[in-house]
């Protein structure tokens, strides 16, 4: 199955705002939005947002998701050193009957 | 609180079989579809299979179709992944995840090596 498209890397300064993108099509991101996950080295993935912009309890309001057409975005405000991690998006594809993942974006906080 | 705990991973030879389990708690298990997702060392996430709440339908990724079988036992709040004809490139952490991927387990490592 084909995957979603994410930029391999993004670099931003401390306390700045980073916006990560995830592109798909009308069968996946454009249909039901995206789930965003954060993963630190050697740790399991942690869900940041799902169903477009629902946040699990304990996830900071600095993380917010949005969608425009078939592109989903994760915005992280007030960047902190601990935000340096890999970020993955995922979306259910109604045509393929499969969850698709992006290749991940490595966020560096300068 | 939702908990998902994988078990059953380990070292297996190429061509061998292994059965992973995922024990769920903290939610009405039978009402949720469930998924298996894996991550090879240093690689991204790969979805493997989805099973609906009642047990059917079940969907598989092309990479494991015909070799892996997903099942669930709602009475035991558990789901399973039977893996056969394992290959070196099946080496990965295997995660179970609820429905819309909103909750994940900690993962179980499967190493396929002679």
Task: State the gist of this model.
The complex is a heterodimer of chains A (110) and B (114). Chain A has one helix at residues 29-32, and strands spanning 9-12, 18-23, 35-39, 46-49, 63-68, 71-76, 85-93, 98-101, 105-109.
Main sheet makeup of chain A: 6 strands, mixed
Q: Can you summarize the main beta sheet of chain B?
A: 6 strands, mixed
Q: What's the pLDDT, averaged over the residues of chain A?
A: 93
Q: Helical amount among residues of chain A, as a percent range?
A: under 10%
Radius of gyration of chain B, in angstroms, nearest whole number = 13 Å
- Our Rg estimate of chain A from Cα atoms comes to 13 Å
Low-confidence stretches of chain B: none
Total count of helical runs of at least 4 residues of chain A? 1
Strand content of chain B: over 45%
Keywords:
heterodimer; A: 110 residues; mainly beta; six-stranded mixed sheet; three-stranded antiparallel sheet; 4% helix; B: 114 residues; 10 strands; globular
Structure description:
The complex is a heterodimer of chains A (110) and B (114). With 110 residues, chain A is mainly β. Chain A has one helix at residues 29-32; strands at 9-12, 18-23, 35-39, 46-49, 63-68, 71-76, 85-93, 98-101, 105-109. In chain A, the strands form two sheets. In chain A, strands 1, 3, 4, 7, 8 and 9 form a six-stranded mixed β-sheet that branches. A three-stranded antiparallel β-sheet of chain A has the order 2-6-5, with no helix packed on it. In chain A, a hairpin with a 4-residue loop joins strand 7 and strand 8. Chains A and B meet through strand 7 and strand 8 of A and strand 4 and strand 5 of B.
